[in-house]
Amino acid sequence: MFNKKSIVVGFAAVLVSGVVIAAPVHNTNITEDEVRQAQEAWGAALIQISQDYSEGGLAKAKATAEAVLNQAYGYGHGPVLFKPTLATGETTFRITQEGALSYFVGDNPDFGDSGFALYGWQEYSFDNAAVYINGDLALTMGHVHLINEAGERTTVDKTWGFKKDDQGDLRIVLHHSSLPYTE
């Protein structure tokens, strides 16, 4: 027997004039699999920007980076808390898409970046220390491992925040990256 609070998988039961009617449920909860897919997509995009730079120059890399920022990041929904790995000084924090684009491909004198995505990245992997999910918000913290065309390995400490938008897509709203502390 259904009552006003009954829920059926994928539907909410609503009592209307003594009749139970099933209504679709809009679920914005993020799954751990969605988070992992977003992290994999970020790494693939970074490698694609590097390859496009090698094969087609800065214009091609910039076009790819712009597409990645539009698709993966939440700049269209508000500021993104973005602290890139090698940023410093007054331009350390990149809350605008323009600042993020400069970090990935350089070519903007207002930021003075050399373009982190242009370093010839060939391989990417990540190890999450933890994943925290609360409804439509997910946070991760761990290491990102990158290997460039010379075989050199770079590991960065990475924290991401993902928010599910109204279309059900994950958007990066927090991106903090830094080199691990060494003595």
Structure overview:
- The chain has 183 residues and is of the alpha+beta class.
- It has two domains: 1-29, no CATH class; 32-178, Nuclear Transport Factor 2, Chain: A, CATH 3.10.450.
- It contains two helices and eight strands, in the order βββαβαββββ.
- The strands form two sheets. Strands 4-8-7-6-5 form a five-stranded mixed β-sheet, with helices on one face. Strands 1-2-3 form a three-stranded antiparallel β-sheet, with no helix packed on it.
- A hairpin with a 4-residue loop joins strand 6 and strand 7.
- The longest helix has 41 residues, at 32-72.
- The chain is elongated.
Relevant terms:
alpha+beta; Nuclear Transport Factor 2, Chain: A; 2 helices; elongated
Task: Kindly summarize this structure in a few lines.
With 183 residues, the chain is α+β, with helices and mostly antiparallel strands.
| Mean pLDDT across residues | 90
Strand content: 25-35%
Count of domain modules: 2
Low-pLDDT sequence parts = 1-9
Given helix and strand content, the structural type is alpha+beta
CATH fold name of the largest domain? Nuclear Transport Factor 2, Chain: A
Q: Enumerate the strands of the largest sheet in spatial order, edge to edge or round the barrel.
A: 4-8-7-6-5
Number of alpha- plus pi-helical segments: 2
User: Rg, please?
Assistant: 20 Å
Range of helix content: 25-40%
Strands, total number: 8
How would you describe the shape? Answer: elongated
